[in-house]
Design goal:
The protein is built from 22 helices and two strands. The protein has 399 residues and is mostly helical. The N and C termini lie far apart (69 Å). The protein binds a DNA duplex (21 and 21 nucleotides) through helix 6 and helix 9.
DNA sequence: AATATCCGCAACCGCTCCGAC
DNA sequence: CGTCGGAGCGGTTGCGGATAT
């Protein structure tokens, strides 16, 4: 045992000798001395800790240096006094070179933190009241067109920051769309997203009944949360039950893994827009689904059965009473009435969104029925969007 | 009334971009 | 052309108030 441990330590030390110990002001002799003492006295744990300590020092020294000394700067909420210092500094010196601001303004804060405080809260042109329906509508339309590029969206909303828009989307709009049965990522009805998934998932061409074997239906029913009753009574949203219920993942061939429906939807969305959602790769997602909901006819909500496995049929089966009800979906979309009004200062953007969404659902369905894959549809949509949103998608977009 | 849970928002984190050198 | 550092961005976290139990 000792021999094995000594061999392991020897190997680790040989590796360590390749590291430039001078960076840590540690001489190879000192390193060798510590190692030798540990081995001679069988202090393997101590020596392992020593090696880990060296490695952690290297990771700190070799990595990118922090913008400030995190341990010595104040964090958390800002006090009125600190706000006043920032305001006074900016009034005298203007913005820029934020790393020097804490020192010059007499603040014990990270410069980056100062910049964020200014841009997200203290800027005099910011609005601090709640979002208007027009702003809400614009955010939804732009998100459908360009995805989660919050800074781009915020620049079309005077007085709003990207953080404001992002928070409002995450806390209000995303949930609102989901309640309406609209996928907030693709801006498509969830039923169609699921249908699209069925056509691209590589699922074998078997009957729905066979595919149901992937799902532990009984367990799903047992795990379903009780139906919530909407205040509106007869217009009870069946969709809302999808938020509460639990289903089991069959997409990943883990039939009995218990997941919330939201998780399943997330997986669906992440698969349909695989590696396209989120910042680094949102292009396909955003380009694939620029839709203004009012453009969609009620007929468009019920996609024809183009693929061998139809998610709509799957979800509308008796067992899945929580699934999307087309009638409620239509009602919800009528309530939204996205195109009822056009924001005055952004007619161009909204017009572009509306222009490119004409018959969008029919378009997708037609494309799929013509043998286009879902990805083909996204790429086609990309081309359309580039034509419809030249000012948003061009690098030369003028804010 | 006390506690738990939910929700919204401010702030932070890590990464990328971009201009200066 | 490569490096460095400031600025910007999107995702995530955590706090504090509101609401439910």
């Amino acid at each position: 045992m000792n021999i094995i441990m000594q061999l392991l330590l020897l190997g680790a030390n040989i590796c360590m000798l390749f590291l430039p110990l001078h960076i840590l002001n540690i001489s190879p002799f000192h390193h060798f001395k510590v190692t030798l003492q540990c081995i001679l006295h069988h202090h393997y744990i101590i020596h392992s800790a020593f090696l880990l300590f060296l490695l952690s020092l290297f990771s700190q020294k070799m990595g990118r240096p922090p913008c400030c000394d995190k341990s010595n700067v104040k964090r958390g909420l800002w006090t009125p006094e600190e706000d006043a210092k920032i305001l006074a500094y900016v009034a005298n010196h203007g913005t820029g070179n934020w790393t020097l601001v804490p020192k010059k303004a007499g603040l014990n804060r990270c410069g980056k933190s100062c910049r964020l405080r200014w841009t997200n809260y203290l800027r005099p042109d910011l609005k601090h009241d709640s979002f208007t329906p027009q702003e809400e509508e614009l955010i939804i339309n732009l998100h459908g067109a360009i995805g989660s590029r919050w800074s781009l969206i915020a620049r079309r909303l005077p007085g709003r920051t990207d953080n404001d828009v992002k928070n409002y989307w995450n806390t209000k709009l995303r949930k609102k769309l989901m309640k309406m049965g609209i996928d907030p990522v693709t801006h498509k009805p969830v039923s169609q997203v699921l249908s699209d998934l069925g056509s691209i998932s590589g699922f074998p061409n078997t009957t729905t009944t066979n595919q149901m074997a992937y799902v532990n239906k009984d367990l799903m029913m047992n795990n379903m949360a009780p139906t919530k009753t909407e205040p509106s009574g007869s217009n009870k949203s069946v969709v809302e039950n999808t938020q509460e219920g639990q289903v089991h993942s069959w997409q990943h061939h883990i039939p009995y893994q218990v997941l919330t429906t939201e998780n399943v939807q997330s997986q669906v969305f992440s698969e349909t827009a695989s590696s396209t959602s989120s910042s680094s790769s949102s292009n396909l997602t955003q380009l694939g689904s620029p839709q203004s909901y009012s453009c969609q006819t009620p007929q468009a909500q019920t996609a024809p059965h183009c693929s061998s496995f139809d998610w709509s049929e799957f979800l509308h089966s008796d067992s899945f009473v929580w699934s999307l009800n087309p009638s409620s979906l239509v009602q919800s979309e009528a309530d939204l009435s996205i195109n009822a009004k056009t924001n005055g200062h952004d007619k161009q953007g909204v017009a572009a969104v509306e222009g490119c969404c004409g018959g969008s659902m029919e378009y997708q369905i037609k494309k799929q029925c013509e043998g286009h894959s879902f990805v083909d549809g996204i790429l086609d949509r990309d081309s359309e969007l580039r034509a419809a949103f030249p000012e948003l998608l061009d690098a030369s977009f003028d804010y």
